[in-house]
Every structure is written in structure tokens, then in C-alpha cells.
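Model: Ready when you are.
Researcher: Fold this.
Model:
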Amino acid sequence: MSENTRNTSAPSHIVWFAPDRENAPWTRIGAQWPTKNGKSFRQVLNVFPTAPGRIFVCRNQPKNGAAA
């Protein structure tokens, strides 16, 4: 992991909630960043789902279309 990756405020991953309903939209519920040692992650949840469903953690995609 490079120093630039560690010092950025943009999260490396986005945390999503997918309800157990057909065609239900996913909801962004938080984000996570790698720790300084690169062996684990720090996660912040803005919302904690109470409905049945699954939580997914997906890599954050750059908005400008640049390769990660």
C-alpha cells in the first residue's frame, strides 16, 4: 500500500445494504478505509439496517473513470 493510498480521505470500499426483496434498491450505509498497517480496515456505518437483507462491501470506484 502506498503512502498516497493511506493519506487519502476517500474510502477504499463502500458498504451497501441489499434488502431481501426482489428488485429492491441497494442502500449505501457506510464506508471503510485500510488501517495504517494494511492488515485490517476501519469501518464507519452511518445507518444500521434492521430489515432482513445482506451487507456487501465493494471497492470504491473512481468517479472520473480513471483506472484504480
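Researcher: Now this one.
Model:
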Amino acid sequence: MAGKNQAAKNQTKDFKCATHLLNEKFRNMSEEKKIIVRNLRFGVLMHIPPLRVHHQILRELANSFKLGENRLETGYRAALGINASGDLFPQKVNYKNLSKDDKQIFRRFQGKILKNLTDEMMAIAVDNEHDRLMFKRIFILYIQMAFLLPTTINKISPVHLAPIFAMDTITERNWG
């Protein structure tokens, strides 16, 4: 039993600073990028304080995650105003079914880690429509990995990639 508890502790130890890092990124983000985030309807996340969450709460959250359904069974998304209705995203992206352009986007993010996303999100310019779209994709990947779907695996997975191929309906999708 002690081994199981230690394994659970190891699985959630990386989640402790997620809100702190999220808060820091929003503090350092340009106003142009904040407008894009608000338009994506994730603006409420800018108001989350830099909390240090106790390990037991994090463990409860981790235990509430329904792996087979790829969702967290809590009410916090609704409390934050994040859409929890509408169409679900596909479980994961099938590379073979992607268009040539989408395959290029897939390869761009394949194997990247949260640190890479964070650096790109903060460094990318948003001067033109192409760059704004790329910022949106990077932000969606970042927010999933850092807050909505954090895992102990630090690499982007095909599950994380699914939403960035539906950017035209991103605000209508179910994040619950």
C-alpha cells in the first residue's frame, strides 16, 4: 500500500505549480495576446491566483480524472465559465487522416514538451493572421498541458492535438 501511495504522490507532484506558472505567463503576456485568449473564451483563467495547492487536493483531482473518457469529473470548469457543453473533441488525432497542411502542423508539435510550448507562446509575434492562428494553437496546447489536462508525461500527445485542428469551432467545443 505504501508503494501505491508513493506512486500517486509522484504522479501529482508535478501539478503543484500549474496555477502559479499560469498566473506568471498571463502577467508577462502582451495585451494583444490577452485579447486573443479572451476571444477564445479562456480569459477567466487570467484571474486565477498563483496558488500552491496541497498535495491531497491534487491527488483528489487526479483520482477524479476519468482516463477512458479523457475528462475530469468535477464542477470547476463550469465554475470558471469554461464551456462544458457542445461537441466533444475527438479522442486523438489520426495522422493518416490529416491533410497535407495539418500533417505539417502535427509534425511541428510532435514530441514537444511543455517548456517548448511555453517559450513559443511567449515569443511568437501576433502581427498577422497566420501568427495569431499559430498563437491560438500554441495557447490551446499549453492550457491543456498546464491546466485542463495535466499529466505526468511532459510531451504533447495526439489527445492534446485534437482541438488545434478544429480552431474554427474552438469556442463551441466541450472542454468539460
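Researcher: Key takeaway?
Model: Residues 1-17 have pLDDT under 50 and may be disordered.
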